[in-house]
Structures are given as C-alpha cells and as structure tokens.
C-alpha cells in the first residue's frame, strides 16, 4: 500500500455542557489549527463523520462545510459514522495515488439530547428498539457477560479521569466514588460523559508527509470489521471483530507503546485489551480516553489523533488506535501508527 | 484514479409508494441478492459492503447500517455508511469504487435505499439545526426560486418543464422497476395537475418511493459476467451559505463534470456520451443540468429539451430509465442513476436500452444544489 501518515491533529477543549456554539463554530478553530500546522489551505480530499440524530435534524454535516472554507468547491464526502471511519475513507482515497493530502474531521454535541435514549434508535427497529433497551442497559449486558472485577473497573475509571485532568482538552472529572448502580453492574462513572467537541486530522502520502511533519505518524496498518447486530448472536465477552481488524492492521507485528481505545464504558477496556493482545504493560488511553471526554462522532477520530500525536511529538514509536460503532462494540476499526513507513 | 474497476452486477427492487411486505432489511437484501445473481456471485464472494441512504430521520433508524449488516452478509467484513444528502447514492458508488481503485478490496457490494413510506420526507427535510434558521419549505420550495431564476435568465418558455415531465414518464413505461408508470401521459395531463411551488406542478415533481438499488464492483482480475468499466469518478461540494454562489448553475457541478470528463477523455459530452442518467427531481432541472454539465451552452439547454434531443430516440438521451421523476427512493436515487448508466453500456437495459450505448454518465446532486457525484462508465476498458 502507499505510505500514508497523520501529519497534524487538533481537537477542541471539550466541554460537558452546551456552550452555545453551533457545530461549524466548534469546527472552525480546529480546522484552522491543522491548516496552520501544515501550511496547507487546500486538500486533495476532505471527509467527515457526524450523526444527524445528535442535532435532531437532517444534514448536520451541510453547515459544517462552511467551516471548511469549501470554495472553490472541494472533493468531499461524509460518513454517518465516527470520524475515524471518515479517516479510513480518506486513507483509501490516498491509495489511488493521484492526490497527496486529505483533511478529516468529526464533530458532535451530545449535550443537546439524551444520547442514552437516542442510541436505542440504532437498534433493529422491529425486534430490538421496541424493547426500549437503552445504551447503558445493553452495555450492562456486555459488562455482565465479561464479568470484570469491580476493583479493576474502578481503577480503569480512576486512571482515565486522572489522565483526563492532566489533559487540557479533556473534562475535569473527580475520582470515582459512590456505590449506586446506573444499570447493574455499571456504576454512573463507568459510563463515558456527555461531551461536546470536534477534532481534525490531516493525512499526507509519501514525501508530502515528510515535508509537512518532522516525525510523520505513518499508518502502517488500518482495517475494520463488523459483527452481527443481534446481541444474542455474539459472545459479548469477546470482540472478535476487534481481534480480526487488529490482525489485519498488524498490531501484533511489533511492540505497542501506547493504545488509544474507544472505550465508552470501563468494561470495554479489558475486552479490547484481550482482543488486541495488549499486555499489561501497554499504556492505554494516556489522554484519559473516552471516559474523560466523549464527543460522540469525534471520539474515535481523537483516538487516532492522540495515538498519532505521541509519534509526532516523539513520545512513542509504535501506537495503536481503536474506534467503534454500533451497540456493544458491533463494529471496530484498528490502526497501527509508527515512526517509519 | 487508481486500479481499474468495473460494475459486474446490478440489482433493483420495484419502486413503489409502499413496500408493506418487506422490512428495511428485506428491502435492501432483495436488491443485493439480485445484484449478486447478476454477477453470478454470492455474499461469500464479497470483501466489503458500502451502504448509503439519505437522512436517518426518513425511517427513524439512527445509523441503520449497524442493523442492516446481517441482512447484507456483512458480518466479519468492513461496512461503511455514506451520507452526502441527495447525492448520497452516487457518492456511495464512488466510495465503493474507491475501495477497489485503491487496491484495498477485490469485490465490493454497494447498496443504497430509502423506505419513504416510513415517514413524511417533506417534514423530515424541513426541521432545522439548532441556532439555524428554518425555511420550512421542503425540497420543492427550496428549488422553485432557482428554477424561476433559470427561466428569467434563459428566457425559456413555460412549457419546457412539462415536456420533461412527459418524456421521462414515457421512458418509465419501458422500465419495469419504475414507480410512476402513467398510461396515456401527455402535456394536458401534466398541465391539469395542481401547482405546488410555482412553476412546479404536481406531475413535474418526483414521487416518494420505497426501494433499494445494489451494485457489485470488481477489480480487473475479479470480473465475472458483463462488466461496465469505470472511466472516471468525481465528487465536488460547495458551502450552502456562500454569498454569491450561483445556485442555478453551481460551480461544484461544473467542476465535477470537468473532472470526470478529463479522466474519461470526454471533450464534447453531447456527442461523446451516448446516454446520461442525471438527477432531475423537478422537471426543470433537465435544461438546467444540460447547461451545467456542458451538454448545451448557457441559456440553450431548454432548446435541446424542446427539440426532443434528450428523448430516448434523440441524439443525446437523458434518463432513459424514467429518471428521478419516475422513481425516487431518495437515498437510492443517485445509485439508480449510476446503475442505469452501467446497465446501458452493458447492453442490459431492456426496453429502455439506448442502441449501441458505449459510454454513459451517472450523475447525482444533493443539499442546496451543492453536493455533486458523477461517474462515467464504458463498455470497453479505460
């Protein structure tokens, strides 16, 4: 495959509440930031990820184009998925060989709606959605299936929130406390917080990447896989699609310094660690991860951005990023980023 | 443009107001199985699935690709979900083609659908983003002023829209999948229908349809059956709120056409493209796009329509299938254009086949006439 790298990454200072900014207003500063970082004003391809249901209106991506400055008209596409999948589409487009740069962004404001109930509408509308199973409830089914140790989950949340407090872009959340359940066995702090935010990434190919960044974060592998939708058809204690995507991306071909995982619930970390074959000494979500900031539809893209940033900043040599979509980790994307292509 | 890619299978459902007999999954599966049958393949031969549809509010299912993965044999495979407004069907084909052209996959299944009977599309299109003004006009109300401006600029006579409405419905009578098949359709019938959004009459608009379309794309070494080779692909977008953008002949459309013509080596589209499937949801968009796509000079598009050049037996047939005016499952409408273009160059368009078609254009547009997707397919390798 053609050598493609992340050469710039920017994200908003995420908030746990609506600050009154519309989506294009969230986006404009981060798009400006990656343009400044690379010196690029135009890109060979642009791709974004967002979800109409967060805004409660069709075409939430249309007004986002105003922030991109799409004039003269640009070659552009959009996925109704997390921005990580938009990055995948852009990576594929760069494989054609006729363009050298791509802009990717994702954005979401989950403060304006009840994400827990909205996610119910993602379920099979005939057999599952009418049951009223909300996002935390079906996650709790998975948490029960994996039967994770409560002390281990508490430690994951404590570590994530502490890392988040040290991350200027993540929320400031206190150490986990309290013994009430949100939906047993999940406690309120096991659930990723409501967050508004956006993120942007610039991809570049070959020598163009070397010109644009001192240490490009080369994407040496990227792949994604889906599983059956119906929870009863899956072993919820495992993530076979993550394992398969990780194999295809080549996670196991070398040591992993850091992994940024799209864990919307604490119990997903042990499932994903096992699926990706990450040993106990692999640092997971040093940014705080989604448990410290979860701007839905940008969260997965931020995992790739954070994993890349550690290579761009010479803090790591080989990192892994993971993004997910669908109920209970139905679909998973895995990328490996390295210092050399 | 990357590696060679061909359409090797096309599947469509019959388009109609309501498909009460199938679920969303049943609808997309019907189209997918027909496309696989056309290609002589099964789900096991497919490497990845790309799903496209217009706003999720149309069916009330958020990101339905998660639920549809099972029905499309996508478990264990990569699934992508594309959404680029009305152009989405076209964009979905381009994302699928990109996977092959980029050398990532050998065979890709592309499916687009809409089950409009699940909701009211005009309502779903009229809600607005928080902190943004709502026009509360639906698509027809939005585009009617653009059409009036075209009429003012070009001096086109009032009956041109009527001619397109009749011509496309005559073509639809030759297409077994078309939604609106109106025996005896003529100008009087169109002119007798109510005015919805001046100058658009009821029979000058597209219907609301349930339906799905699927195509199978293959790399050169994976081609089975009769291929339609992709000679060019292009997408262009421009901001909806840009002051001074020309909504009558958007620059994104002109740039997109120029890009796809350059790739396909087309310099005179009216002469070199044998048949075009162009997104015409309101009759007047035929003359408008004839100009935007370079088939006619500025202000001259309506003259081609009036002279019958775009009819099935004209010198540059447009929408031989009956087009969006005859079938409109919104999210699929763009893919139907792309698929019908492929059927024409494969010589498999049946009664609405344009004799000897070797090069065809598929076109889709969306949003406020700001998103464009196009491809050119041919019977021979590029």
Automatic annotation (TrEMBL), chain A:
The organism of origin for this protein: Microbispora siamensis
Transmembrane regions listed in the UniProt entry: none
Protein name: Lipid-transfer protein
InterPro entries: Thiolase-like (IPR016039)
Organism lineage: Bacteria, Bacillati, Actinomycetota, Actinomycetes, Streptosporangiales
Source organism, top-level taxon: Bacteria
From TrEMBL, chain B:
Source organism superkingdom: Bacteria
Thiolase C-terminal domain segment(s): 245-376
Pfam families found in the cross-reference section: Thiolase_C_1
SUPFAM superfamilies the record matches: Thiolase-like
CDD domains with a match to the protein in the record: SCP-x_thiolase
Identification of the protein by name: Acetyl-CoA acetyltransferase
Source organism of this protein record: Microbispora siamensis
């Amino acid at each position: 495959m053609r050598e493609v790298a992340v050469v710039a990454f920017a994200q908003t200072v995420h908030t746990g509440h609506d600050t009154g900014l519309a989506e294009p207003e969230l986006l404009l500063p981060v798009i400006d930031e990656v343009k400044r970082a690379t010196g690029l004003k135009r890109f060979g391809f642009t791709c974004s990820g967002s979800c109409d249901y967060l805004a409660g209106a069709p075409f939430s991506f249309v007004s986002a184009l105003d922030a991109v400055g799409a004039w003269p008209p640009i070659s552009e596409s959009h996925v109704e998925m997390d921005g990580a999948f938009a990055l995948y589409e852009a990576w594929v487009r760069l494989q054609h060989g006729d363009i050298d740069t791509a802009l990717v962004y994702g954005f979401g404001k989950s403060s304006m709606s009840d994400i827990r109930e909205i996610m119910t509408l993602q379920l099979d509308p005939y057999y599952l959605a009418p049951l009223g199973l909300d996002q935390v409830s079906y996650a709790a089914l998975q948490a029960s299936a994996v039967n994770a140790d409560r002390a281990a989950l508490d430690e994951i949340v404590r570590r994530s929130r502490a890392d988040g407090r040290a991350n200027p872009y993540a929320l400031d959340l206190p150490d986990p406390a309290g013994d009430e359940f949100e939906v047993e066995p999940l406690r309120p702090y096991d659930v990723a917080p409501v967050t508004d935010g956006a993120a942007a990434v610039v991809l570049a190919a070959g020598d163009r990447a070397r010109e644009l960044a001192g240490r490009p974060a080369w994407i040496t592998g990227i792949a994604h896989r889906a599983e059956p939708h119906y929870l009863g058809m899956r072993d919820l204690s495992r993530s076979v699609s993550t394992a398969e995507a990780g194999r295809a991306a080549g996670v196991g071909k070398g040591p992993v310094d850091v992994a940024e995982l799209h864990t919307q619930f604490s119990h997903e970390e042990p499932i994903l660690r096992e699926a990706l074959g990450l040993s106990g000494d692999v640092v997971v979500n040093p940014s705080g991860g989604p448990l410290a900031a979860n701007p839905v539809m940008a969260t997965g893209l931020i995992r790739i951005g954070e994993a890349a940033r550690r290579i761009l900043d010479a803090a790591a040599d080989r990192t892994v990023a993971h993004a997910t979509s669908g109920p209970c980790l139905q679909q998973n994307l895995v990328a490996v980023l390295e210092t050399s292509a | 443009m990357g590696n060679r890619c061909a359409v090797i299978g096309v599947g469509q459902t019959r388009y109609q107001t309501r498909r009460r007999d199938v679920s969303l999954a049943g609808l997309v599966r019907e189209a997918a199985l027909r496309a696989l049958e056309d290609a002589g393949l099964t789900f096991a031969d497919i490497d990845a699935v790309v799903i496209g549809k217009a706003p999720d509010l149309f069916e009330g299912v958020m990101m339905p690709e998660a639920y549809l993965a099972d029905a499309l044999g996508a478990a264990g495979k990569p699934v992508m979900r594309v959404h680029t407004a009305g152009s989405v069907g076209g964009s979905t084909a381009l994302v699928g083609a990109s996977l092959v052209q980029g050398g990532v996959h050998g065979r890709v299944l592309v499916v687009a659908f809409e089950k409009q009977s699940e909701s009211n599309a005009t309502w779903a299109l009229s809600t607005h983003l928080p902190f943004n003004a709502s026009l509360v006009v639906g698509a027809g109300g939005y585009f009617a002023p653009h059409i009036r401006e075209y009429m003012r600029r070009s001096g086109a006579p009032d009956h041109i829209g009527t001619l397109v409405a009749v011509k496309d419905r005559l073509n639809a009578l030759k297409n077994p999948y078309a939604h609106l098949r109106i025996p005896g359709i003529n100008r009087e019938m169109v002119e007798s229908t109510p005015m919805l959004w001046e100058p658009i009459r009821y029979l000058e608009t597209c219907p609301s349809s349930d339906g799905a379309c699927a195509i199978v794309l293959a790399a050169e070494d994976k081609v089975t059956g009769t291929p339609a080779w992709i000679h060019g692909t292009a997408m262009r977008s421009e901001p909806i709120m840009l002051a001074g953008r020309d909504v009558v002949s958007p620059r994104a459309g002109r740039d997109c056409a120029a890009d796809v013509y350059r790739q396909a080596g087309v310099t005179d589209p009216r002469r070199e493209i044998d048949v075009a499937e162009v997104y015409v949801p309101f009759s007047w968009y035929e003359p408008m796009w004839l100009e935007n796509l370079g088939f006619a000079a500025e202000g001259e598009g309506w003259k081609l329509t009036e002279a019958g050049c775009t009819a099935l037996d004209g010198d540059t047939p447009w929408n031989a299938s009956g087009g969006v005016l005859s079938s409109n499952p919104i999210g699929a409408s763009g893919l139907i254009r792309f698929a019908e273009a492929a059927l024409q160059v494969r010589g498999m368009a049946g009664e609405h086949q344009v004799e000897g078609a070797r090069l065809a254009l598929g076109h889709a547009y969306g949003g406020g006439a700001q998103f464009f997707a196009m491809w050119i397919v041919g019977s021979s390798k590029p």
